Amino acid sequence: MLKYTKKLIFEDGTEYPGFGFGADHDAICEIVFNTSMAGYQEIISDPSYTDQAIVMSYPLIGNYGITDEDFESKMINLGALIVREVNESPSNFRFTRTLSELLEESNVPGIYGVDTRKLVRSIRDMGSRKVLLTDYSTPTSEGINLLKATELRRDAVKRCSSKKRWYARTSNPKFNVVAIDCGMKMNIVRELNSHGCNVTVVPYDTPAEEIQKMKPDGIFISNGPGDPEDVPQVIDTLKALRGLYPMFGICLGHQLIALSYGAKTYKLKFGHRGGNHPVKDLASGRIEITSQNHSYAVDEESIKGTPLKISHINLLDNTVEGLSCEEDGTFSVQYHPESAPGPQDSTYLFDRFIEEMKKFRTENI
Questions:
Q1: Among 128, 145, 238, 301, which is most exposed with the fewest C-beta within 10 angstroms?
Q2: In this structure, how many other beta carbons lie within 10 angstroms of the beta carbon of residue 75?
Q3: Can you tell me the distance from the alpha carbon of 60 to that of 6, in angstroms, rounded to the nearest whole number?
Q4: Is the pLDDT of residue 343 over 90?
Q5: How far apart are CA 179 and CA 314, in angstroms?
Q6: By the 8 A CB rule, do 293 and 183 touch?
Q7: Residue 360 contacts by C-beta under 8 Å, 6 or more apart in sequence?
């Protein structure tokens, strides 16, 4: 029988033993879980998971390997990966390396052999919290003291945003979009390109005056990690730009738009992560199956008194999933309409953004 090599330690002294893979070092992270059955490469390369330890609830991870074309970001910023079983012999003609090799290259530690069913229930019942991934020989008391003495970082957006402006052009472009990068997934850029948009991606702290000089047809605000109140620069930029251009926000971008209009956000007990969240479009009554990844939500009561209207709600917990301000051409959703590998129920929102930009252009001829 194999001897355990790694373990997870929580501040209450609870431990989960397992076996190490990927990089071999300790890590203190916020622990979260994801319920997706596929798409682990897109998940671990999503900048929204910066500094987090992800527990995959699906038991077998790594079975189709890693493919160079499927990354959502060039950087792998997650804190750690926790799985029940890891497959080191993938079956996929496209794969270029194993999951373990990618984690090792990216200096991300992993642990497998953990009772992930018990661990997910723990997070569901007790909420997201700090965890230490360490060597199996580490004394529990030492791990608890280390957890208590460690503050989680709050500069995740700064670390995963673009450091300078860059461009993603398409053939026969119809619109120019400025995308504020708070930790943006590449499939968002691909989706905008496929809808006929040239995209100028700018760092999160780009001032409104600089964006206006680019003469955009529309402003996109991306997903990203952490607490939206940690990036007041973006909130100030959106306050200055709202009403001047159509704006579309996804995930963190949704929360930042809400804050820029005077609404408030709060932290969920364990967040929404996975590809199976039912969301209702209040205008059409249509139910969308959505992919989500966030710890924070917009406070429904705080929307009252703002020009914003709730457009979508989560049918699992009734949290706010979409907002709009028709007079400004602004709208946002908490979920990911561009999600890869899926679901694809919500891609119509990019068509809506195109229509808003057409309307804006017509009104400003």
A1: 301
A2: 14
A3: 19
A4: no
A5: 26
A6: no
A7: 217, 218, 245, 246, 329
Would you call 277 a catalytic residue per the annotation?
no
- Residue 150, pLDDT above cutoff 90: yes
Tokens of 59: 């038991």
* DSSP secondary structure, 153-206, as one string: PS-HHHHHS-SS-EEE--SS--EEEEEEESS--HHHHHHHHHTTEEEEEEETT-
- Under the banding of pLDDT at 50, 70 and 90, the label for residue 2 is confident
Amino acid at 132: L
From 30, 321, 338, 356, active-site residue? 338
Whether pTM > 0.90 for this model: the answer is yes
| Residue 338: active-site member | yes
DSSP annotation of 45: T
Contact 333, 312 (CB under 8 A): yes
Query: Which backbone phi and psi does 116 adopt, to 5 degrees?
Result: -70, -25
Confidence of residue 361 (pLDDT cuts 50, 70, 90): confident
Residue from 255, 237, 257 nearest 247 by CA: 257
Collect all residues with Cβ–Cβ distance below 8 Å to 57 and sequence separation of at least 6.
33, 34, 35, 116, 117, 120, 274
The number of residues in the chain equals 365
What is the pairing mode between strands 247-250 and 27-34? unpaired
The structure tokens 């850029």 sit at 189
Gap between the Cα atoms of 226 and 153, Å rounded: 9
Q: What are phi and psi of 355, to 5 degrees?
A: -65, -40
Q: Is 251 helix (H, G, I), strand (E, B) or coil?
A: coil
Mean pLDDT, residues 136-145 taken together: 98
Bond preceding residue 341 cis, omega within 30 of 0: yes
Task: Give how far the C-alpha of residue 193 lies from the chain's centroid of Cα atoms, to the nearest Å.
Answer: 20
- Residues 109, 326: Cα–Cα separation, whole Å: 46
111 three-state secondary structure: strand
Token pair 């129920």 is found at: 345
Place of tokens 């001047």: 244
* Cα–Cα distance measured from residue 314 to residue 320, given in angstroms and rounded to the nearest whole number: 6
Q: Which residue has the tokens 């500094």?
A: 51
| pLDDT, the chain, mean | 96
Check if the beta carbon of residue 116 is closer than 8 Å to that of residue 146. no
Residues 251, 312, 321, 356: which is the catalytic one?
A: 251
Catalytic residue among 272, 294, 312, 336: 336
Phi, psi dihedral angles at 344 (to 5 degrees): -115, 20
